[in-house]
Automatic annotation (TrEMBL):
Decapping scavenger enzyme that catalyzes the cleavage of a residual cap structure following the degradation of mRNAs by the 3'->5' exosome-mediated mRNA decay pathway. This is m7GpppX diphosphatase. InterPro entries: DcpS/DCS2, Histidine_triad_CS, HIT-like_sf, Scavenger_mRNA_decap_enz_N. It is an enzyme of class 3 (hydrolase). Residues 1-24 are annotated as: Disordered. One of its GO terms (molecular function) is RNA 7-methylguanosine cap binding. The keyword Membrane does not apply.
Amino acid sequence: MAESPQAKRKREEEGEKNGGTAAQGGAAAAFALSDLRVRRVLRESARDKIVFLHAEKIGLSGEGTDAVVILEKTPFQEEKIPDLLKKPMNTELQMQNDIYCTFYLSPPPELSEIKATVVYPATEKHIQKYLRQEVHLIRETWEDYKDITLPFIQSQSFSIQWVYNILEKKAEADRIVHENPDPSNGFVLVPDLKWNQNQLDDLYLIALVHRRDIKSLRDLTAEHLPLLRNVLQEGKEAIGKRFGVPGSQLRIYLHYQPSYYHLHVHFTALGYDAPGSSVERAHLLADVIDNLAMDSTYYQKRALTFPLRADEPLFKKFQEAGKV
Ligand code: M7G
């Protein structure tokens, strides 16, 4: 049965009531947001109304453990918009000129939510990921992949424990939107960490495949076509059924390079300019399927372009190899 974002929200509010305390599970210890101290701003965007913070939690013996906190003003929820104008609150007229005027409103708490995403404990790599940096495009041939990228991702990449937790139902089990349990051609579809499910404008889900031997686009061959077709077909159907968004309004793609080397597919609302949905990083799943159907070793032949930040160790490896 379809569940609207509002109904979902209500269910979560009733179920949660955890007073801002992080959920237990995996390696994450329970803590309250107020235990965190801000160290510095890593990046902020006035346009996206988002700020990335390097924070720390001070332990009993006074030592600090790093955390990343992402604060984001949430999109408007259509059904609550009339209250913004009606409910008594501070409204300050800033300027008036002919037919134009600007007000500043201080909405009541239920209309001025901020989403806080916390990574705790955070590694240096997490902190670097969110730090604003100069970005360069890399053009990676298959040889570059084998000689530079593969050894690098084998030696260091983000832990994918969170993916295994989802696949094994140790975390986010109640958030699963669809599952095909087949060990080779199945997957789990869950709302992405970035989506609060309160509105469809920024709809964002990810499909995590059950197989654990596919790192990225580079590993895909025609052998994986049944799996990829299942993700495309069943993912679209499940989102249509649950959220009422048709497949023609979904952007369904893989990232290259991904941050997490366990094959997963992004599903975002077409009207949403999702981070990482631009041409230098996103590969439409339908195109990937067509390419593999035409040539099983397509992704072991062609060069792939992707952006890297100047401070990333992988960028340095490409630089050392004289490829930048
Ligand atoms: P990616 O292409 O590997 O990297 O995508 P990116 O984060 O640079 O885009 C991984 C996707 O998984 C992203 O869209 C993340 O927001 C999402 N994600 C990351 N984590 C740690 C979680 C998680 O714990 N739960 C869920 N549901 N999504 C996550």
